[in-house]
């Protein structure tokens, strides 16, 4: 099975270089900058500006300082109150860095019936099941995503980080929307999504311990392992879904996030900078 533990040496090597960033106490954190874009010739997504990660609940004092050193001024938390309480995973005081609660799902979306259905979809590990989940995220995430995107519109110099619990699904959807809006190609977006497979590996023991408390996963190890799935083909299917069902990223942002054409143009420009170091870009063809 491709979701068995990864080779530790391989994990260490991948995590030691971009786009991954070392923030003590935080898993699966990486920079969405330095990706090539088709929007403007010679431009890339802005480095050291927008970051994605898993929950920040265990961040250390050194990690807090590193967030400040990166210029991060805002943290957007996509988790619900129910989720935070269940796992006792409050974000600690980050000092001058503001934490903005931007839950994708409402409290009622965590009813036993809804959670049972959601867990069954996760447990299947099938692409079509993830598309149902990701449609739920798109349909419910307009307000949360709008808060993040308006920050990009209004604060192009203040870095941000957004996260859910694992930094895979809700985080993966808004990361894909940002990269797609910036003009990054589908293959690069899918590869970024797939990196979560490595990014979450150091948290495997914690994740499995949590899942062991859920009846569906406690009795089904394969279902639990499917929670680690982040295959490129899943993101390709999502991007197809975004185009086919929602009319593409611009239409989704106008209809579900209530952004104007002018908003979208400003956000797109604020995500890009000139690629001054062409040699570096040649060495990393997808970035």
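Q: What amino acid sequence fits the structure above?
A:
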């Amino acid at each position: 099975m491709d979701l068995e533990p990864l080779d530790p040496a391989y994990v260490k090597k991948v995590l030691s270089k971009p786009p991954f960033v070392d923030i003590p106490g935080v898993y699966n954190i990486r920079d969405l900058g330095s990706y090539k874009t088709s929007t403007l010739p010679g431009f890339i997504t802005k480095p050291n500006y927008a970051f994605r990660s898993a929950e920040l609940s265990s961040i250390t004092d050194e990690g807090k300082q590193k967030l400040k050193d990166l210029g991060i001024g805002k943290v957007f938390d996509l988790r619900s109150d129910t989720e935070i309480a269940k796992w006792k995973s409050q974000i600690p005081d980050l000092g001058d860095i503001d934490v903005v609660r931007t839950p994708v799902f409402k409290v009622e979306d965590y009813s036993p019936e809804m959670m049972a259905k959601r867990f069954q979809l996760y447990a299947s590990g099938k692409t079509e099941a993830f598309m149902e989940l990701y449609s739920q995220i798109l349909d419910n995430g307009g307000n949360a995503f709008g808060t993040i995107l308006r920050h990009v519109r209004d604060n192009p110099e203040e870095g941000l980080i957004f996260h859910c619990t694992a930094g895979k699904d809700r985080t993966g959807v808004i990361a894909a929307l940002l990269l797609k809006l910036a003009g990054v190609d589908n293959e690069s977006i899918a590869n970024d999504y797939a990196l979560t497979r490595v990014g979450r590996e150091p948290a495997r023991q914690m994740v499995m311990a949590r899942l062991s408390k859920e009846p569906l996963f406690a009795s089904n190890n394969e279902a639990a392992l499917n929670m680690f799935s982040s295959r490129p083909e899943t993101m390709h299917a999502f991007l197809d879904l975004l185009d086919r069902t929602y009319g593409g990223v611009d239409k989704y942002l106008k209809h579900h996030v209530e952004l104007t054409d002018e908003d979208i143009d400003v956000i797109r420009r604020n995500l890009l900078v000139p690629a001054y170091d062409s040699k570096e870009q040649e060495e990393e063809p997808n970035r």
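Q: And what stands out in the fold?
A: Residues 232-246 form the longest helix (15 residues).
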